[in-house]
Amino acid sequence: MEKSGIMKKYDYIMQSVSKTASVSRPPTAGNDIAARLGGLRILLDQNLSPGEQVTFAIQGNAGEGLACSNSNIFILKSGMAVGSITGRKCSKFSWDQVKSVDLKVGNLYGILEITDGKMPQYDANDITRAKKADNAITFLLSRKSEFDQAVSSIQSYLRK
Predict the structure, then answer these.
(1) DSSP 58-101
(2) Average pLDDT of 120-131?
(3) Distance of alpha carbon 93 from alpha carbon 114, whole angstroms
(4) Measuring CA to CA, which residue among 108, 81, 76, 71 is closest to residue 91?
(5) Domains identified in the chain and CATH numbers
(6) Is the pLDDT score of 20 beyond 60?
C-alpha cells in the first residue's frame, strides 16, 4: 500500500512538472505532432512503418503515451510503466483489431483503454495493473478534458 502511495505521488509530481501540449491545438508550421510524446517519440519512431505518419498523439502519466496513424494505434510505455526503470515497450494495434475505446475515471486517475473483446479491462480506482497493460494508458483526473478529446479523435478512426 505504501508503494502504491509513493507511485501516485510520483505520477502527480511528474505530471505537474511536465505539462503537455493541448490535444485540441492543431499543429502549426514546423510543429511535429509526435513531439508531444517527449522521450517516447524515439520509441514511436522505431515502431512506425516506412512512410507512416503520426496524425494524433497524447502523453499520459509519466512514461506513458498514445499515438495514432492512419493504419495503427500505438500504446507507448517506458520506465516504471513497463515494470523496470530501463524498460521500454510499444504495443501496436491495427485499426481492424480495435473494437472500442473506453475512458474510465476513478477518484484521482483515469484510464484510456483500447479493446478488441479479448483484451483485459481495468478498474480506474486501481491503476497498478492498467499502468503495465499493453492496451491502456493512465492519466491524472485533472487532464480528463484532454482525454475526452482524445477518445473523440480515436473514435473517428473506428468509424472509417
Answers:
(1) EE-STTEEEEEESSEEEEEEEGGGTTSTT-EEEEEEETTT--EE
(2) 83
(3) 9
(4) 76
(5) 2-158 (2.30.29)
(6) no
